[in-house]
Amino acid sequence: MDNRTTGTETRPPRTLDRPLAVIDPRAAAELLMNEPGWQRDEKASVTLEHTGPMRVVLTCLHGDATMGADVNDDWVCIDVVDGEVDVERAGERVRVTQGQRVVLSPDAGWALTALADPTLLLSTFSPDSTGG
Description:
The protein has two helices and seven strands, in the order ααβββββββ. The chain is mainly β and about 130 residues long. The chain starts with about 25 loop residues before the first helix and ends in a 7-residue tail after the last strand.
């Protein structure tokens, strides 16, 4: 299957389901922050990889931007590449800083608040996938 992005006015379409993918989140963030959407919106995202039950999305947020889910169907790993965020779930709030990862299990909502224009690498995994 050829899983391709649609591209944007500044980014051509590209294949996502590669058998080997090297991701440079800082380089991807630099390109993303040069796009018009980053200037006008509170956040900008680009899917870097999507194969089967796994998706990797780079998201750059302006300070005080929020994101999350009322109910989370997948496992979510959020790596803070730059900056810091607050993540809240089930009444607990944690600060996650550059170089740290927060892991969220399925079946519950979560909320994230950006502090200091963070760059995040979000990886999601379907609970139906099998581990090795």
